[in-house]
Design brief:
CATH class of the largest domain: Mainly Beta
Structural class: alpha+beta
CATH superfamily of the largest domain: Cupredoxins -  blue copper proteins
CATH topology of the largest domain: Immunoglobulin-like
Oligomer: single chain
CATH architecture of the largest domain: Sandwich
Largest sheet: 5 strands, mixed
Number of strands: 12
Order of helices and strands: HHHEEEEEEEEEEHHEEHHH
Number of domains: 3
Helix content: 40-55%
Radius of gyration: 28 Å
Distance between the termini: 77 Å
Amino acid sequence: MNNPASARNDRLPLFIIVLLLLASCLLGGCTESTPAVFWPQGEAAREINTLWWILFGMGTAVYLLVMAFVLFALFRRRQADLPGDPQKNGVNGRRLIWFGGVIIPAIILAVTYGFTLDTMRDLRLPSADNRLVIKVTGYQWWWEVVYPGENAITANEIYLPVGEEVLFELTSADVIHSFWVPELHGKMDLIPGITNTWKLQADEPGEYWGLCAEFCGMQHAKMLFLVVAVPPEEFDAWLEAQRQPAVAPTAAPTQAGLDIFLAEGCAECHAIRGTAAAGDLGPDLTHLASRLTLGAGSVSNNRGNLAGWIADPHGIKPGSLMPTSGLSGQALQSLVAYMESLE
C-alpha cells in the first residue's frame, strides 16, 4: 500500500528545484543595472556567447548520456540473471569502458579544445596604432577613467564610439579588481603595479552596465560603471566637452557653493579643473553634473541623491572613504547648486 506522506516527500526535492529555477528567472530582471549576459552587443561578447552555448550543449548531451547509463544500470537485471557466455559479456564490458571512458571523452575534449582555441584567436588584441586608448584604474570602490592625450578624465562612466575597437589599459590602485562588461566582452583583472590590456567594441548605441567581478571589499557589490556607446560624431562632441575646465560660477548661490567646496576640505580629495581644487584621492568632479549615476552606480544622479550623498555618503554606500559633511541646510543647498552647474 502506498504511503501518501512518503509520496509527498519524494516530490518535495523536485518542487524545490522548480521553485529555485523560477525564482532565479524572476530575480534576474529585478534591477535596471543587471547586465544581459546572454544578449551580446559586441564582437567579442558574441564569440564568448557562441562558445558558451557550444559547451553548454555538449555538457548537456554528456549529462543526459551518463544519466541514461545510470538509469539503465539501476533497472537492468543482475549479471547473474543474464543469459549468454560470461566471457562474451566481459569483452562487451571492456569495449564499453574503452569507448565510453577513453575514446569518446578524448573526442569531446579535443572538440572543446578546438572551439576554445578558435575563440581565443578571435579575441586577440588589435594593434594600438590609430586607435582610441582609455586607461581605467580601479579603486575601492569606484573607477577612474582617463583618455590619455585628450586632457579628459571622468569616473564610473566610459564613452565609446559605436563600431570602433577601443583599447583599454587596466590597473588598480589598491586591491585586485576585475573589469567586466558582459554584453561587450569577458573579464579582465586589474592588478596593482601591473597594466593589463583589453578591448571593447559596441555595435549598437546604448548604455551597457559593467561591474567588478572580483571581490574587493565591503562595497564590492556597489562598484558598477556604465559604458555609453554613441555615434562617432556624438563621441567627438562629448570628448571636446570633457576637455574643457569647469564653468566658472555666474550666480551668488553657485559662487557660495564653490567657496564652501574649497573651505570644507573637499578640494583635498577631489579635483575640479579650472579651480584651486586639485585633490586626487577621489573622483575628478569637473563635469559631475553630466554623469548619469553617483557612487559608482549606487544611485541616479539627481538633486535629491546628490544632496544625500554629500550629507551622508555612508547612508548610501557604507564603508566609502568619503566622510559625512556636517553642513548646515543652507550651505548644503549652495554646494549642491554648484555641483549641478558642473555640466
